[in-house]
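#struct-pred
JK: can someone run the complex with zinc ion? inputs below
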Amino acid sequence: MDQANKPSAIKPPPQHNRVLQEITGPLVFQCLKCRLIVGDSFAFVTADRELNSVVLYAKPHNIRVGTDLLWSREGIDIGSTYIMIYCNGCNSTLGKVWRTTPRKLDYIRDLYTLNLDCVMIYQLGDFIDPNSAPSDIHTLPSSKMQQISINKLKDMILILNERITALENTLNKRVNTTSNDSTVFSSTEDNNACIVIPRGAQDKSIETHPNHRILG
Ligand SMILES: [Zn+2]
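RT: done, C-alpha cells with the ligand placed:
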C-alpha cells in the first residue's frame, strides 16, 4: 500500500505539551479512539510521569476491567501483576489496575490507572478567554437588582444632603444675628433640636462648625 494512502493513525499530542500546559479546571478523560468519556479528575489521586499515567480512585462507568492477571517483565513496574482496563465503547486498551506492585508503586495498587497515550484530556472551561467578560452586565438579574439598590442609595444620599445643607444655612443665620450673650432658642425651623450659643459665639470655630452646638 502506498504510504500516502495509509489511514492516519490517531496520535496523542506530544507529552511535553501536556505537561507544560497549566491546569486551571477539572479535567475530563476521553477514549482516544472513540471519544467516550472514561473518567474525570474528581476521582483524581495522582499523576505519574514515569508511568505516563493518571490515577483515579473510583471506577468510571465506561471502562471494563479485564479478568486476566498479567505479569510485568520489564520497566518501572517489573515484577508487578496487573489487569488491563478497556474502553466500553470501542474495547481499546486504556490502562491498568495493578494488583501487586514494588514498594515505590504501592500508592497505585488497586486503583484505576489511565495511560495518557490512550486518552484525550479536556479541561472544563478551556474555551473561555479569561480576559473576556459579558458585554452588558445589566442583562444579568443579579446586576439589575444591584443597580436598583445603588439608585435607592443615591436618592437617599441626595435627600440627606439637602436636609443637612438646609440645617447648616439655618444655623449660620442664627449665629450671624446673635449677640455676644448666650442665647437659647427653643427650636430650629426644621426640627426640635435645641441650640445653645454661648459667649463668644462669633468665634470662628463655631461659624465653621455650627452643628457642633446642636443638642437633643
Ligand atoms: Zn473507546
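RT: quick notes.
The chain is about 20% helix and 25% strand.
The pocket of zinc ion is lined by residues 31, 33-34, 36, 87, 89-90, 92 (CB under 6 Å).
JK: thanks, will look after standup
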